[in-house]
């Protein structure tokens, strides 16, 4: 169930399927909990401008999503999830946190666990775009840095 997975992951968030544009080049730091060369680029708080699950933008429907990233952790908060896309049924606000890893082109939520999910990311100015798949559902999101 997608909302359960997001709730457990605290994903879209990001988090977060459009064609990803990769940031730079260079070696990746593969491995659980590793931080790639671009990790500092997404450290901070981000507010969702769009958050599409299976092609439906839940932000356009009034849901708000905020992610906060450190170099090794993430947290998120969801409010007004009236369709229970990210929160449990009947719950309109939720959030969670966990460990974060990265490579030069990916954000890895809960690395090394059964809940591990990887999203491709691109940052242009103060806009973060992420895309990936959660339990077979394509997820794409754009966030603006706060």
Q: pLDDT under 50 segments (min length 5)? A: 7-37
In one word, what is the shape? Answer: globular
Question: Major sheet: size, sense and barrel closure?
Answer: 8 strands, antiparallel, barrel
Name the quaternary structure.
single chain
The whole-number mean of residue pLDDT values reads 79
Helical residue percent band? under 10%
Instruction: Report, as a whole number of angstroms, the end-to-end distance.
Output: 30 Å
| Radius of gyration, in angstroms, nearest whole number | 14 Å
Description of the molecule:
The chain has 146 residues and is mostly beta strands. It has helices at 2-9, 39-42; strands at residues 44-53, 56-57, 64-69, 73-79, 94-102, 106-109, 117-124, 127-134, 137-145. An eight-stranded antiparallel barrel has the order 1-3-4-5-6-7-8-9. It is globular, with a radius of gyration of 14 Å.
Protein traits:
single chain; 146 residues; mainly beta; eight-stranded antiparallel barrel; 2 helices
Mind sketching the topology for me?
Blueprint: H1 2-9, H2 39-42, E1 44-53, E2 56-57, E3 64-69, E4 73-79, E5 94-102, E6 106-109, E7 117-124, E8 127-134, E9 137-145
What would you say about this model in short?
The chain is mainly β. The protein is 8% helix and 43% strand. It is globular.
């Amino acid at each position: 169930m997608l909302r359960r997975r997001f709730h457990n992951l605290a994903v879209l968030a990001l988090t977060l399927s459009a064609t990803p544009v990769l940031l730079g080049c260079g070696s990746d730091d593969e491995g659980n909990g590793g931080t790639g060369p671009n990790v500092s680029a997404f450290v901070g708080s981000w507010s969702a401008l769009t958050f599409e699950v299976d092609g439906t933008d839940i932000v356009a429907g009034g849901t708000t999503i905020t992610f906060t990233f450190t170099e090794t952790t993430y947290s998120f908060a969801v409010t007004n999830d009236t369709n229970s896309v990210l929160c449990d049924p009947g719950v309109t606000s939720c959030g969670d946190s966990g460990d974060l890893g990265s490579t030069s082109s990916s954000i890895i939520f809960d690395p090394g666990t059964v809940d591990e999910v990887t999203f491709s990311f691109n940052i242009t100015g103060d806009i973060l775009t992420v895309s990936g798949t959660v339990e077979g559902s394509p997820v794409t999101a754009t966030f603006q840095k706060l």
